[in-house]
Design a protein that fits this description.
Elements lengths: L1 E6 L5 E5 L5 E6 L10 E2 L2 E2 L1 H14 L1 E7 L9 H20 L4 E4 L1 H9 L7 H15 L15 H14 L1
Parallel strand pairs: 1-6, 6-7
Antiparallel strand pairs: 1-2, 2-3, 4-5
Helix pairs in contact: 1-2, 3-5, 4-5
Length: 166
Amino acid sequence: MLTIGIDPGDRGAIVALDPDARPVHAWTADDRGGELGYFLDGDPNARELVARLGPLRDLGVRLAVLETPFAPGRIGTANAITIGRRWGILYAALVLARLPVQLVTPAKWSADLFGGRKGTDAKARKAVAVRLVSERVPDLRLVPPGCRVPHDGLADAACLALWGMR
């Protein structure tokens, strides 16, 4: 049975782990030119997501964990709407693929996995996520081809899947 973690951000990702925390599939949102990207014209491509998630359902999905969006008041209305629209497309794709979904806040999963405290800045939390995933999911390639730094969306998505496996 697979557990899927989904980081819904611009640089988000989807990671499916088997019960031994080995990656079965990993897709990034922002790799627009490659095979992995699932954004189309700035939004998640719902049709492509359902097509990619359907075969995972056939392998057996225990849970898909989707991070709830966090939009601080200072980002503005247009950005908040974009975040909500993108999150809604991801949620709808999970429902259309008939996967069991659990929603979780960034504060909740990070506190449960590595003691993230309220007020911890996102950059520090992402660095901890990269370290944790490097240790617990060593087969997940966090540095995409042509890049030199780990993809924090992949790390967060893997953390969400690990959280869902608990």
